[in-house]
From TrEMBL:
It comes from Chitinimonas arctica. This is EAL domain-containing protein. Coiled coil: none annotated. The chain holds residues 522 to 774 of 787 of the full protein. Residues 1-253 form the EAL domain. It comes from the Bacteria.
Length: 253
């Protein structure tokens, strides 16, 4: 069977699963939010990371089905957690092509309704490169999603091209500063100035600012001093299955 055939099987037979990585609020220490990250558990090949099949799914156009699977599962899971009295706001990654899918807003609206989930508990992450294919069409889709009350984050912020032009024009609510800036933050003065300025810029524009890929406490302390809102990284937790995430969160209380 081809890789595409295998992936179709995976979507149809629930061989995909979601892992959850907490986004820790630096002011409160709580983890009321998490990013949902897809994993493929292949019957013969075992665990296939998204870096190996998401680009392939994008090339073939099959990403549309993968994204639909991810959205359905993330929204159902967030709905169940909210009903259980432990709401978690989830972030879901969109691929480039997803922003060109005019049916996406109505699909998301339907899934939210089925799960009785408020749009306050869903954030969609996009990348700058995802906007470049057809900016006008992507903008129309994003405006609809934002008008529905969803949050919109720019992922990998700082690594793309027209960063400033995009945040000026797009209905975004959150910047996720790329991990590349965190690796040497404590030792590298220019990285520190860039991150400090980005936090300030984000706040001046009314956006939430998240640091991604943080691996040590010295960096967390620096980010807290800079006023960064949230940290997502191995320093707190790796992406984990739903049950582990719930247990991890309960241990925080
Ligand atoms: O989780 P991990 O570090 O393995 O993720 C690797 C890459 O795959 C990241 O760029 C991440 O954004 C992407 N990715 C993870 N889950 C999803 C998903 O559900 N949809 C899309 N489009 N990309 C994802
Ligand atoms: O591209 P995107 O930001 O969606 O990718 C998110 C992925 O980054 C996560 O799924 C995870 O695998 C990876 N990641 C998260 N935190 C860390 C970290 O602290 N260090 C490293 N090396 N990778 C991380
Ligand atoms: Mn992401
Ligand atoms: Na990122």
């Amino acid at each position: 069977l081809s890789l595409l055939g295998d992936l179709q099987q995976a979507v149809e037979h629930n061989q995909l699963t979601l892992y959850y990585q907490p986004k820790v609020n630096l002011a409160t220490g709580r983890a009321d939010e998490a990013e949902a990250l897809v994993r493929w558990i292949h019957p013969d090949k075992g665990f296939i990371p998204p870096g190996e099949f998401v680009p392939f799914a994008e090339q073939t156009g099959y990403i549309r089905e993968v994204t639909r699977w991810v959205l359905a599962h993330a929204i159902a899971t967030a709905g169940a957690w909210a009903l259980a009295g432990r709401p978690v706001k989830l972030s879901v990654n969109l691929a480039t092509r997803d922003l060109l899918d005019r049916d996406l807003p109505s699909l998301v609206a339907e899934l939210l309704e089925q799960a009785s989930l408020s749009p306050d508990y869903l954030c969609l992450e996009i990348t700058e490169s995802g906007l470049m294919a057809d900016p006008a069409k992507a903008l129309a889709v994003l405006q609809q999603l934002r008008a529905m009350g969803l949050s919109i984050a720019i992922d990998d912020y700082g690594t793309g091209y027209s960063s400033l032009a995009y945040i000026r024009r797009l209905p975004v609510t959150e910047l996720k500063i790329d991990r590349a800036f965190m690796i040497e933050l404590v030792h590298n003065d220019s990285d520190r100035q860039i991150v400090r300025s980005t936090v300030e810029l984000g706040h001046r524009l009314g956006l939430k600012v998240v640091a991604e890929g943080v691996e040590d406490h010295a960096t967390v302390a620096l980010l807290r001093a800079m006023g960064c809102d949230q940290v997502q990284g191995y320093v707190f937790a790796k992406p984990m299955p739903a049950e582990d995430f719930i247990r991890w969160r309960e241990a925080l209380d």
